[in-house]
């Protein structure tokens, strides 16, 4: 007869397996993550070690946490989606006490059937080995006594801690892992040997234990940026899908839009389309700003109850299997641009065309911005909104391009453009109420943003399925949406 404990474990094991049926099959492969670790290892200085920590679990309120989202660097290198984990990568092979060689170690949160009933499946050591392809995997608690002699390396590289993690009741949670790491490298008050040695040594009466190894919180960020700014073919499959999903959201709202809609309803249409296509999340807080609200660059309140006859600026992006798009369209809520709206819109469109044309291999990341600004500034001067470029600058206050990928603002070295980079081209004009120009322009905000793949044969607009010209937008807005027939009971 089986013991109650064994029966309980069997029950949870069955639940564990059943909870994983029907998962998508197009995630990044374990071979992809392995290849990224191999490339990073090749770029690391000799006799160094790199230490990565999983993202923190962040509290929303009381006993409710935000939906967990893995640190993009950690996911890029491991494929592991759970919290409370550590990845250690060595520049050269190491040998343990048993004579085994290894060049990487993964520490994961331990299996816990009771916890998994509440919060879902954990891979555990065996799952990380079989599903992620790691050979040397341990429970997180073993990191505290890993036996890694960090003093034997010329440099210990890690990302600087942001101190936004909590000490929880979990055994070997992120707090415990980081505190243990600090003790293992003799980190004192978050100072590293590079920037603290002189200060410490000049204090004659100091009792501080000066670190005996060199730590580095800068190099790893640069190495990861250089890796992530150029996408592999496997990454591009997912990124292109995220972009196309986002473009479909823009198309559907163009058909569904009417002056009686609220900003948050418009947001909901986009995000509903994302879910239909299998997008897990939004890549960033959705921006829907009607009229003067569009002049707030990262307006996320989306609280205006009726968009009326305003232009509606919609900056949203679907996240698909970790990769996020970033697509913006600005459309007239009533389906037709006014003369003033069209004049501003067409300047931004022409500026974007110039920016996209400059998105070619060898050009700098600033090239699209330089090209777009020239068009915007001259257009504002021609309309009499600004007298010169200095005055025009206030109406275009942000940069034109950034990388996208696992982050909406993906890291990069911001050097010359290379093949298989994906960047945004997003010029804009924003004329807030009260601006020093003819009031007929007040409250007009326009941004057009597309995701551009840099290739040997020139730029490719991955989000081109969402109309960009004022004429194409007006044409699509005349079509019926399946959402037009949706009627819900009124709630008084």
Description:
The protein contains 14 helices and 19 strands. The protein is of the alpha+beta class and about 500 residues long. The chain has 2 domains: about 15-225, Creatine Amidinohydrolase, Chain A, domain 1 (3-Layer(aba) Sandwich), CATH 3.40.350.10; about 230-485, Creatinase/methionine aminopeptidase superfamily (Creatine Amidinohydrolase, Alpha-Beta Complex). Strands 6-5-4-1-7-8 form a 6-stranded mixed β-sheet, sandwiched between helices. A 3-stranded antiparallel β-sheet has the order 9-12-13. A 3-stranded antiparallel β-sheet has the order 10-11-14. The radius of gyration is 26 Å and the shape is globular. The N and C termini lie far apart (about 60 Å). Residues about 5-10 and about 190-210 have low confidence and may be disordered.
